[in-house]
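Hi,

I'm pasting everything inline rather than attaching a file, because the server keeps stripping attachments. The sequence lines come first, and each chain or strand is labelled.
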Amino acid sequence: MGQRSGRQERSKKLELALSETMKAETEVQNNKDEAEELKAKDRRLTLVFGVADLKNGAIGLYNVGQSCCLNSLLQVFLMNIHFTGILRRITVPSHARDKSRNVPYQMLLLLEKMQCGKQKAVSPMALAHCLSAYRVKLFVQHDAAQLFLTVWNLIKKQMKRPELVEKLSYLYTIGVQEHLVCQKCSLETRRNSSMLTLPLPVLGSDSYMLKSLEDCLQYFFRPEELTDHNMCFCEQCGMKTPFLQSMKLVHLPQTLTIHLKRFCFEKSAYVHKLSHYLPFPQDLDFSAVLTENQCEADDNEKASWQYELFAVVAHSGSTNFGHYCAYIRSLTERKWYCFNDSEVCKVSWDDVKCTYGHSNLTWGETAYLLTYMKKPPQ
Ligand code: ZN
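And the predicted assembly:
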């Protein structure tokens, strides 16, 4: 039962990811003067943003309308120099109304405020207000995994320039292949698809608590038999037959987001949080974690699957009264920071490890989203 709903959710995620595939809008420039003005603005912005992630130290974000979830995600986006490298090349909308409703532009302005100001924190109000036009409400406890998908899709949709849309997709998109094999006639079907996060269950079959991130990955990519009421129709057999379903990893992006599914929707409307201990490493080699059968990639691709942890979005409290903060390792300084709304402080790896969780501390802090960065080739 739990397995089945997990599988359904996985398919839903895939559909979400697929429905937002490359639909780049063509850039329209009204007249030459406007184009020149935009170019000049672009140049000014490049001057401002052609800097490292922590030029003025780490800057916090004020909590506006319970925006701790949004704030944590924004810090993860804006501390990622691969992302800001794309963001600072966007075309600035020409009209005031378009500017106020453009998510990437508002992110860029926020980044400018964070990098130019001398305050310890800045307000994300303009961006939060902009997002509210797209049904991302203020004063609502968001789910960080859902909000990440929403914000990412808005950025992509509103980025306009096709080459930037492509870069953004390439930076974040995970490639997988779904396999279905009829257990009666061995007919095999394959389908390539993409995902923005790896939604990893933290419980195995029979609600067994998985023991590490590596276990969760193994479990996610395990083959699963579809029998009884889960059987599928086989065209070759002309009837419903048992199938073996599996997902194989094809491609991993530079910025890889892992979603630990700690919120459990098992019993109707009641959502509860799974807080048990689940360690994750700072260095992760996917080609060592997954077996040959769980990958559909050549040696070159697999050789690039060396990752180091970049960010942890952690949740504390219950499902109804929670709080988010982000632990991020600066890519330039290589030191860990904790971004807790307007409060930012340097922390150690041991502090980050406190987000591994503990079964007896259900209100305690637990890692919810993990962002890993591909290591540069040796
Ligand atoms: Zn068959």
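The pocket of zinc ion is lined by residues 182, 184-185, 187, 234, 236-237, 241 (CB under 6 Å).

If the labels don't parse on your end, tell me and I'll reformat.
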